Amino acid sequence: MLTKYPHLRQDFAASLVVFLVALPLCVGVAVASGVPAELGLVTGIVGGTVTGLMRGSSLQVSGPAAGLTVLVFEAVNEFGLPALGVIVLAAGLIQLVMGALKLGRWFRAISVSVVEGMLAGIGLVIIAGQLYSAAGLEAPASGPDKILGLPGAVVDALGSTTALTSLTVGAGTIAVLVLWKKLPSKARTVPGALAAVLLATLVTQVFGLSVATVEVNGLPASIQPPGMDAFGSLADPAILGTIIAFTLIASAESLFSAAAVDRMHDGPRTEYDKELMAQGVGNTVCGALGALPMTAVIVRSSANVQAGARTKASRVMHGVWLLLFAALLPSTLALIPLPALAGILVHAGFKLIPFREIVSLWRHHRGEALILVATAVSIVAVNMFEGVLIGLALAVVKTAWEASHLRLEIVDKGAGPIHAHLSGNATFLRLPKILDSLESLPQDRPVELDLSGLHHLDHACRTALENWAERHSAVGTEPVRVTAPELVKVAAR
């Protein structure tokens, strides 16, 4: 057996570690998304047993992700739980088409600042929303209201014994997660998230604390494939925008995770188009089951690599362990305190905010840092999809501005013609600067315009230079002489 599967021992051990990491996260993401806890397990099972079998990234692990929590919550609130399956199914089919068209590699062209800004914005919304859940309070609907309402929530919590008890359990969970990494390596055999949930569950049960726990419906009752009525919602333009948002964000998160996982090991590199198709198959199955959308998850993937996984068998087995747990021990979910899950997600949201990257970018690339912050703020202020679009638009504008770098050098020796040298890329973005400088030249002096240093001259600049040359030559001065007549034809000549 070991001869046929030489890495079975390492993969088996790694699968248990990934299972223990994934279990509390699957449940926590589902609860935070406003859906039955079992649906998070369903997505984790599909991520292991379906996507895990496919080619793409051999060590990357897929499942429900905190990064899509906000988007799922908004979709369920707006369209209802039955429509979630349709949205996820459609997103999976689009991912399949994109993979077949070999568009996976193009996701690597997305600005890293936009992606990090997206994760930071998601992290802020998760933290703000789950702080209410940790106190057993209902969170406002919009991102700004969540943040602005926190002072009032603190006052409400301080005046309620039940809220303070719930908040203490959530804070204790976060403390365990933070301190767990400082324990000796042998003690950290149990993943921090699982240890935090187990300790919180034990404390609430032993002391009989009055805190909300996970509502359990059972796996068969939670799986609700979308009916024909749900498919009728595809006629709504708003739901189409949500599908596009699911597709782009899930794909970007998965492929950026794949790039990060590739840096952790020396095994086979990710085949991006095949990985995108694998994610598409997984989301199609999840949608057909009415479950949460899936992405590749960096927390589970890094745990898989660090635990010594060698092949895709580890992630497949982790899906099997999730299935066995959901089938044999579903009632244990009802013991888990909701504030403990909220604490796990607050910690996860905090880790999504790239504090070090922001500081580094501000020191060396302030434009990129501003794009990151603007994307995050836009997601909090508006919503996920529009916030990402704003970030992408800012990245495109910044790139266009930098690509249109232009230098204008004026040489005036006091007598004879004035020499104007243009070098770089002359685009409409730099047109005001060009015209201000040229129009400030004395009207009674001849001008020699040297364009030989230009790499690019767009139509707007070409036309503007022709018009300026005509005006400058119309006052009786010698016609403007252009040293690159193939670029600009000056009628005044």
From TrEMBL:
<feature type="transmembrane region" description="Helical">
    <location>
        <begin position="79"/>
        <end position="101"/>
    </location>
</feature>
<dbReference type="InterPro" id="IPR011547">
    <property type="entry name" value="SLC26A/SulP_dom"/>
</dbReference>
<feature type="transmembrane region" description="Helical">
    <location>
        <begin position="113"/>
        <end position="137"/>
    </location>
</feature>
<feature type="transmembrane region" description="Helical">
    <location>
        <begin position="157"/>
        <end position="180"/>
    </location>
</feature>
<feature type="transmembrane region" description="Helical">
    <location>
        <begin position="320"/>
        <end position="350"/>
    </location>
</feature>
<feature type="transmembrane region" description="Helical">
    <location>
        <begin position="192"/>
        <end position="212"/>
    </location>
</feature>
<keyword id="KW-0472">Membrane</keyword>
<feature type="transmembrane region" description="Helical">
    <location>
        <begin position="238"/>
        <end position="261"/>
    </location>
</feature>
<dbReference type="InterPro" id="IPR001902">
    <property type="entry name" value="SLC26A/SulP_fam"/>
</dbReference>
<keyword id="KW-1133">Transmembrane helix</keyword>
<dbReference type="Pfam" id="PF00916">
    <property type="entry name" value="Sulfate_transp"/>
</dbReference>
<protein>
    <submittedName>
        <fullName>SulP family inorganic anion transporter</fullName>
    </submittedName>
</protein>
<feature type="transmembrane region" description="Helical">
    <location>
        <begin position="12"/>
        <end position="32"/>
    </location>
</feature>
<feature type="domain" description="SLC26A/SulP transporter">
    <location>
        <begin position="8"/>
        <end position="375"/>
    </location>
</feature>
<feature type="transmembrane region" description="Helical">
    <location>
        <begin position="370"/>
        <end position="397"/>
    </location>
</feature>
<keyword id="KW-0812">Transmembrane</keyword>
